[in-house]
Description:
The chain has 4 helices and 17 strands. By secondary structure, it is mainly β. Strand 9 and strand 10 form a beta hairpin.
Amino acid sequence: MKNISSHLKQHLQNKNEFVVVDLYTISVVQSSWSTGLVITYQNYYYNSGGYDLTYDGKVFQGTGAHIKRDRTRLTMGTEVDTLGVEIMAGADIIIGGLPLVVAAQRGFLDGAHFIVDKAFIDPDDKTVIGHVNMFTGRVSNAETTRSRAELTVTSDLELLNISMPRTLYQPACQNDLYDSVCGVNRSVYAKTGTAGSSATTLDVPISGEASTVAEGYWNLGGVIFISGILKGIARTVKKNISGIITLANPLPSAPSAGDQLIIYPGCDKTVDTCQNKFGNLDQFRAQPFVPKPEVAI
């Protein structure tokens, strides 16, 4: 059942004239390294009409970005639904400092919160009478062409797809490195570096303090570029050997020599790594001496 305000209900019952437009709210995850890793959300607002709309203290842009979505449906139960969204936008529609289509191609919209509301407009003064929420979810996939981004938005019910029970007896630590339970401070272990020449989309030579660690130190860690064409792009580090980091997934383009980056180490969730690499054994959350399934005792 959809909930609407009493004002909108009264208007729909008493008047036959109104205009309907879609309101789109996109909340993009943003990271900052100024004082350690800080996760924030930047909101962007658009509507399917031909003019800007001000509603609930927000300005929904009506020009520049043309958005078309699939039909939504209402079902009983806990079925995880998806919504297809197509966005055509020019270079003047900016997200994260980049044109929207470029931002989508570089992964800036991955995991973004996406809200679709149907707004009812008074045709006389073009004010919003009220709205009905049509879909809420997160961007699970983005495909792009030169001028178009095609997004797949998955319902928030997907968050229910978690393993239960949450705590299991297993030899690998159940904490996520740097989370509140693990307690390791990412900024303490992060180091800055510079991309060298002959870098590819998967292998990046590095110099600076990030190159002074032992081989394998950055394995399973992460890297985020803080300057150059790849600024803001993050990837998982597969391994580091001889001053070269190999990424788990390719970059949109090869970094240029001199591009600045920050790298932080990873964890293989073993007791040795927790104790010797991070000195964090008190927070180790596993049972490393659980027998293997095939061992009879």
